[in-house]
Amino acid sequence: MVKQAPLKTRLSYWFDNFMSRGLWAKIGFLALVTIVFIIIMGAIAALAYGDGEQMLPWVWWKTVMTSLGKNTPGQNDGPPVYIALMIIAMIYGMFFSSMLIGFIAGSIRDKVNSLAKGTGNVVESNHIIILGFNETTYVLLGELIEANRNMPKTQVVVVLDETSKEDMDDAIAARFSKQSDHPRTRIVCRKGSIYDLASLERCSIATCRSVIVGASSDFETIKAIMACAYLLNSSDASPEAFAVAVIHEEDSVAAAEIAGHDGREGDRLELLPLQEILARIIVHTSRQPGLSRVFDELFNFKGNEVYTIDAANVPSALHGRTLREINLQLKDSIAIGVFDQEHGIVLANPNEVILEKGQSLIVVAEDDHGIHLVSEPIVPKELGVNRNSPLATMRCLVFGGQPILNDMLIEYARYLQPGSTVTVVTEEARLRRPIRHATQEALDKASVTLCMKSVSEISREEVFAVLDEARPDSVVVLSNHASSTPDAEDAKTIALVLYLRDYRDLRGAAFGITSEMCLGKNREIAANTGSDDFIIGKHLSGLLMAQIALDRNVRSFFECLLSPEGFEVYMKPARNYVPMDCDIDLFSVIDIVAARGEMLIGIQQRSGTIFREPQINPPKFVNGSLKNYRFGPLDRLVLLSEEAYDKVETA
Asked: Which of 59-63, 246-250, 498-502, 509-513 has the lowest mean pLDDT?
């Protein structure tokens, strides 16, 4: 025989279960009890009068009024039994009122506490959700705030993390201290697990614009991708909503892709393999010093960036024209490609790409508020210079044997000329990940020599000895993220950069330095004391994710830009295209470059011994008149081109 729990225990359990229900459930139950009470009390009171059938409606009404406190039973109201029953009804009315007020007050208190703790529901649509709160979150918020400055309505960004709402609010307020810092962006913080379905539903993921997965580790990212894929593929979710995520380790990419598809139809995930992207950018920058600043300008929302102008907003006057012809009509932007659903993004020879009706136009512009045309197409000057830079071998020196090294060597094999060398210097006798057989095959096929060298420590004497032996044209410094804290690793990087600069000054060497760093604050310190290139993987991933979260088509553009096939970013000598020390307008420069099958997107001019910051989409007019530029022998043009070097005859 099953022994029942004591009555007190059962009543306590029932009461706890009742109090855990919602406000309307409590009020409904209380109303039901009250109705039953009034019916019973009214019936007994009517019988006390001796004429139940006639008195029942009146007594019920008196009972209701007494229960609600609208009537106080007196000595002349009826028989003693009736008066006693009304006193009981009055006491019950006091109980009913206090319970009702308690339920409402408790519900309000719970709601306020929920909002304070960040566990309340988000009632928004077309918002962006950021999963995770870490250093990358500040980059994301900064970019989204900048992108929303010219929006007509306030945009909402929801941040979800297990950090308390108060701590997140305080940290964000400290970083973006004034309301004027984000006048068109409202940031809402919520506490919860980034891969918990209930937490994601509280953020209204079904009605969001996009989800940015900014977890600290690949394992957490994969779990968050699985949860997002499940909810975004549900019938309630917006058909346009998607997630964008970064995977740091190459070994985790395949698992993340499988998690994102979730075995269902529809592609809801934009996945960025950071190690591969970072390797390409580091290699490109090491071969072209200053290129990291161009990527920063293109990838962030400050200044000019890449926009897709929807087909409905493209002026009909541009239909049927090549990109070269279109750029002679654009007043404050530069056309670099076209887009449609059938062909995707087309970046190709501007003399051959034609904008058809129904296609979107890809431009480099300051904002996405449409494009402006000059009244009449500009007639360019015919001042083109056809020179080429000779194809040359390079001696590349890499400090560090991190997992990214294999991807970097593959990129070097694609771009370095036969006879080039890559020397890898590491403090470890054995690499954390040995050079893969496929990597060595790619280097051998490209006739690029790989030299491995280990040193006891990275000291000034060791660095000088390595440089004396290698005589590099470019130096890359990699961070070992797994070895110590970010600050400690950046300290090692900065020390090594200082040794390299010291050697360069003492020996009169001319190599460029490209360094990978962990924290933005340390990058600013190092960058302010020199003109070398500093790249931060987390910063870069934040820029890319913010761009893609606002415009999914941009992903294809970045993929084209960083792919070894097709058009890529190059910085080439201005003297190969335009005459020196001669005034020339930007329309003419754009047309001169287009005549050689390339596209101009910016310039970088030199001031004394220092290069100025690259100008992406430089101004074409000043005070309503054409602005003229004068280029020196060391100035450079920022181009989209298929080749690093020109293939025309030397003039």
From this structure: 59-63
Residue 502, pLDDT score = 93
Query: CB under 8 Å to 504, separation ≥6 — which residues?
Result: 510, 511
Beta bridge partners of 115: none
Do the Cβ atoms of 527 and 274 come closer than 8 Å? Answer: no
Are the C-beta atoms of 429 and 454 separated by less than 8 Å?
Answer: yes
Closest CA to 455 of 513, 371, 533, 398: 398
Q: CA 556, CA 332: separation in Å to the nearest integer?
A: 24
Pairing state of beta strands 334-340 and 344-346?
A: antiparallel
Greatest extent of the chain over all pairs of C-alpha atoms, in Å: 124
For the chain, the distance separating the N- and C-terminal CA atoms, rounded to the nearest angstrom, is 106
Cα-Cα-Cα-Cα torsion 53, 54, 60, 62, nearest 10 degrees, comes to: -150
* CA 223/CA 232 separation, integer angstroms: 14
| Nearest-angstrom CA–CA distance, 399 and 455 | 10
CA dihedral 123, 128, 129, 134 (to 10 degrees): -130
Residue 540 tokens read as: 């870069």
Helix, strand, coil shares, percent, the chain, to 5: 45, 20, 35
Per-residue exposure over 486-499, b if at least 16 CB sit within 10 Å of its own CB, e if not: beebbebbbebbeb
- Pick from 323, 352, 318: nearest CA to 335: 323
Cβ atoms within 10 Å, residue 120: 18
* Token reading at 74: 């007196």
User: Distances from the Cα of 418 to the Cαs of 30, 45, 226, 511, in angstroms?
Assistant: 86, 108, 45, 20
Question: What tokens appear for 357 in the block?
Answer: 């009706």
The region of weakest confidence among 79-83, 285-289, 419-423, 593-597 is 79-83
Residues 6+ apart with CB under 8 A from 312: none
Using CA atoms, how far apart are residues 567 and 327, in angstroms rounded to an integer?
Answer: 18
The residue among 284, 289, 226 whose CA lies nearest residue 260 is 226
Whether residue 414 has pLDDT greater than 60: yes
pLDDT for 75: 45
Tokens of 289: 């010093």
> Could you give the CA distance from residue 192 to residue 198 in angstroms, rounded to a whole number?
9
The count of C-alpha atoms lying within 13 angstroms of the C-alpha of 222, restricted to the half-sphere facing its C-beta, is 16
Site of tokens 């500040």 = 138
Q: What are the helix (H) ranges across 118-179?
A: 135-147, 165-175
Q: Using CA atoms, how far apart are residues 278 and 476, in angstroms rounded to an integer?
A: 12
**Residues forming beta bridges with residue 515, ordered by sequence position:** 477, 534
Beta-ladder partners of 398: 424, 476
Are the CB atoms for 566 and 611 separated by under 8 Å?
Answer: no
- β-bridge partners, 164: none
φ, ψ of residue 455 to 5 degrees: the values are -125, 160
Structure tokens of 276?
A: 């591969």
256-292 pLDDT, tens digit each: 988 887 545 557 889 999 888 899 889 988 888 888 8
Q: Which of 364, 256, 360, 361 is nearest to 301 (CA)?
A: 364
Tokens of 43: 């019936």
Predicted TM-score (pTM) of this structure: 0.77
Closest listed residue to residue 582, CA positions, set 645, 632, 538:
632
Chain-centroid distance, C-alpha 521? 19
pLDDT at 76: 47
- Exposed (0-12), middle (13-18) or buried (19+): which is 255, by Cβ within 10 Å? middle
